[in-house]
Amino acid sequence: MMGTDEGRREWARHWQYPELPGLDLLRAHYVRHTFPRHAHDGYVIAAVTGGVEEIGLPGGTVRAGPGSVVLINPEVAHTARAGVPEGWAYATLYPSGDLVSEVAAEIGTLRGTPGFTADMVADAQGSRAIAEVHRAAEAGNALAADTLLRGVVARMLSRHAGPLPARTLRRAALADAERARAVLEDRMAGPPSLEQLAAELGTSPFALLRAFRERYGMPPHTWLTDARVRRARRLLDAGTPPAEAAVTVGFSDQPHLNRHFTRIVGVPPGAYRRERAAGRA
Asked: What is the CATH classification number for the domain harbouring 222?
């Protein structure tokens, strides 16, 4: 259960431990905060330690309480919010695709790109191990943190993973969606309208919207906001000031970046950048 102080307020720490490359860590307690539909470049392995988290996934809504582990594959669109009035607390690991593939190769039981086959599992021991990764990293114990991290990833892969499923979209629709994504990534600061984008790709707006939603789990404008935040994160990681990052990725000003960044990442860009700078110091 959450402590008295944690149960009264929202707090979050999103950071990197330099001794664990290829990993982001988030430990937080949210009450009113809601995550809009978004996706991650890498994987999500989250241990709910208090309250209930409600996750909206392509297959439906999942409610995760203490002792459960939430597993989300790269590029899977999802939402998150509190499932009870007191909110939820969790410890989350965001391992990169390279890190997960490295562990999968060491296990030697998975072929192809590994993907989780369950959205949530009841695994009290695994949940505790995820929290222990955080504690070891926060204590600066690199040997323990790395050992525990690889153990957690191996545990989840060996128990709840298989090859990532192939896309079921028609080849032409899949190609249109992926070409649309490439255009939006290339022209992030000045994107075309849906009608203009469809015309450039030689399809109709409705057909493109349907293909894009099926491929990426969200419409193009929602995906673009998420992509802008992801690119802003990379810029902040490199030391770019938030105001400059906002303009570079296509937000009209820093307050717009602040609002969308905080909703999607879970912490404001200033706090995110300070944690990155502290980790490099």
From this structure: 1.10.10.60
